[in-house]
Amino acid sequence: MKKNNQFKLLMELFFTFFKIGSFTFGGGYAMIPLIEREVVEKKRWVSEEEVVDVFAVAQSMPGAIAINSSTFIGYKIAGKRGAVVATLGVVLPSFFIIALIAIFYSKFQDAAAVKAVFSGIRPAIVSLIAVAAIRISKTSIVDWTGLILAILSSFSVVFFDVHAAFAILGGATAGLAIFIMFPKKTEKILSNGGNKN
Q1: Are residues 151 and 103 in the same domain?
Q2: Does the N-terminal or the C-terminal CB of the chain have fewer CB atoms within 10 Å?
Q3: How many helices (H) and strands (E) does the chain have?
Q4: How many structural domains is the chain composed of?
């Protein structure tokens, strides 16, 4: 019975991430709102706070954020097998689609219909990324400290071309410094974040 439940969970993990990989265009960041909706809202495998932490760690590691996130979430839910299954689920659709496109795209890349399709996809991708940013900010930015860190990180990445990993490390350093110097403030920030869930 336990093996059947484990197998069922692994299949559910695979098809959930296969769906995410199949219907999300625009790369890892565009996948964030769909990952959040599937694993937080629908499946309730992780909380909003946990998924934000997953995205932060996934972004700071080498590799695509969607693949890294799926691996982390899969591991959290079903261990090593879950990590493998979730990663395969999110990667396989892209692999098959890109293989097909590689065969036919060179023949049709200059077609007006193809250009029109991509001109419509691009703004839709921007909206998906914006939605992800807004949703994550509701959980992550709970006071003025968080808002200032978010503004400083955005400013450093946009205007000074600071790598995203360094922006994340900077935020982690600031969080640790606040924890050491102002433990009561940290407790308040964490409790506010918990109340937002």
Answers
A1: no
A2: N
A3: 8, 0
A4: 2
